[in-house]
């Protein structure tokens, strides 16, 4: 893998992955990061890489839905491997504007597959990043395995399920060397503050209400983003072509408990206004339509076959994440005020 196309590299997981790949892993090639820079893409996350490692990193502002443009990129940079992260990723947005999700997550993935099919001879691997949400919702017991039937419930998860099927079909039909990973909820540095954990951290810091959907008893499995990055690279290096791997953090938790943990950690630093506990900011709000009740991941396959396990506990990962948001107030302000968008326009058009 000398010329790896990373799609969506300016997003939350993508920028963490590129940082990990180029600064910490044993990958010795070049990354070509293709990102459309939607509201969720911020090239500022990779400014140090652009400055410090110019020979090993190229950024191309482009839309994976433009087939000709993606074909050109494949040729120009002699792409020999792909890590496909670009997507519309937020469930609530998919309920309001499903069309955008269908376009990027399905048509965009299809385009990339078509390009790799054309460049088949030089392609070592197409790794597709997917989600545990494709499996639907669990009851009180049980875990998602790689054999769990797909049963997506939101436009987001249905679009991701569709893209997974396309990737699998291109392996079966065209013998394309693919791997797929289905991962649980990520958290950590650079996450856009619309997702549960960064939203709650920033609202709690500012003394704003903490909106918990429904009864707050929905369960998610939380994975620190760096652990996800090591899992992706492990699969890309050692994963069996044509296989899928579940990735989880071994940290099932009810939403309300996560929010309470965030409040308590922040209270340890400094109590809120009038010495108030931040738990008093918790506000139960109308539930998300089609809200999946419980996700939980069985990641024994990647553990037993490839030797990967998550390193971070929920407590240590949350502390690191909270500290990162407190230490990066300028990044937070630029993202929250929308100032990062004018900066992007100035630099990238
Ligand atoms: P994100 O929303 O933070 O970033 C997505 C990136 O894709 C952004 O940089 C955006 O500009 C880019 N993008 C969007 N549409 C594009 C297009 N048409 N062409 C090119 N670039 C485009 O998302 P994330 O949380 O980093 O998720 C990355 C991937 O991981 C997604 O495929 C998502 O489905 C999957 N995933 C996310 C999680 C999670 O908890 N965040 C968990 C499991 C799987
Ligand atoms: O499971 C993996 C998925 O995790 C990824 O595929 C998605 O890209 C990612 O966005 C995430 O989806 P969720 O819907 O689980 O994440 P979100 O952070 O939006 O919500 C987490 C839980 O918290 C969910 O049960 C809804 C709830 N929630 C969320 C928000 C934003 C609230 O109670 N209040 C909120 O304000």
Jot down its keywords.
alpha/beta, Rossmann fold, 12 strands, binds nicotinamide-adenine-dinucleotide, binds 2'deoxy-thymidine-5'-diphospho-alpha-D-glucose
Could you describe the 3D structure shown?
The protein has helices at 12-23, 47-52, 67-76, 91-96, 98-118, 155-174, 196-206, 225-238, 255-269, 300-306, 314-327, 329-337, 339-348, and strands at 3-7, 30-35, 57-61, 81-84, 125-131, 178-183, 185-187, 210-213, 219-224, 244-247, 252-254, 282-285. Strand 1, helix 1 (12-23) and strand 2 form a beta-alpha-beta unit. Helix 9 packs across helix 11. 44% of the residues lie in helices and 16% in strands. It has a domain at 3-190 and 223-252 and 290-311: Rossmann fold, CATH 3.40.50.720. The protein is of the alpha/beta class and 349 residues long. The chain is built from 13 helices and 12 strands. The chain is globular, with a radius of gyration of 20 Å. The strands form 3 sheets. A 7-stranded parallel β-sheet has the order 3-2-1-4-5-6-10, with helices on both faces. It has a 3-stranded mixed β-sheet with strand order 7-9-11. Nicotinamide-adenine-dinucleotide (NAD) is lined by residues 7-8, 10-14, 35-38, 40-41, 63-65, 85-89, 104, 108, 129, 131, 160, 183, 185-186, 192.
Describe this structure in a few short sentences:
The chain has helices at 12-23, 47-52, 67-76, 91-96, 98-118, 155-174, 196-206, 225-238, 255-269, 300-306, 314-327, 329-337, 339-348; strands at residues 3-7, 30-35, 57-61, 81-84, 125-131, 178-183, 185-187, 210-213, 219-224, 244-247, 252-254, 282-285.
